[in-house]
Amino acid sequence: VGEVDVDAGRRKLLHLLNSEGDERAERVVDEPLGDAKLLAGFGSHLLLLPADVAKAQDDVAVGHQFPPLVIGPMTPTHLFRWSAAIENWHRIHYDQSFAIYHEGLPNILGQGSWKQSILPRYLKDLCLPDGWPWKVTFQHRAMIVPGDTITVWATVTKKYEEEGLGFLDLDVGMRLQYDAESCPGRATIVL
Hints:
Blueprint: E1 2-7, E2 10-16, E3 24-32, E4 36-42, E5 45-50, E6 69-71, H1 76-86, H2 96-102, H3 112-127, E7 132-138, E8 150-162, E9 165-176, E10 185-190
Antiparallel strand pairs: 1-2, 2-3, 4-5, 6-8, 7-10, 8-9, 9-10
């Protein structure tokens, strides 16, 4: 999958794309890190969270922003790999000429089912090891095409307790590099 190097209080994420043999891509996220732990792997991407990330409902307040997950830039290989995995052979997901000249699209498209898998997985990994996502709902509003970088995010909008469990309601989404919201929605998690 890749490796994580913590260097001078900064996050450095080196991941292998493995789309063309030994192709490598490097991304540096210029944010204070301090002590960190690897939370989860997302294919060729890793999610790093600061050691003090909220793990209990009492640790957060309304307005708390969870650490984002940044995926991309997406390549045609990323998009085709998902199509192959779920056996969706519609040409708009892998044939660029068909997508552009026959269907009038800007490029080949990322699948909605891929987006539907990323947001719940992000929420699950935010809740580990003792919490869980309760529910999530979102809309598909913007296309994902090769070259896009996606930032998955979550912000606390409400906290409450029911039957001894601590719930957090969240605004969630997947924002593209030009600030378009691809998948705005809401979720509830239990910490």
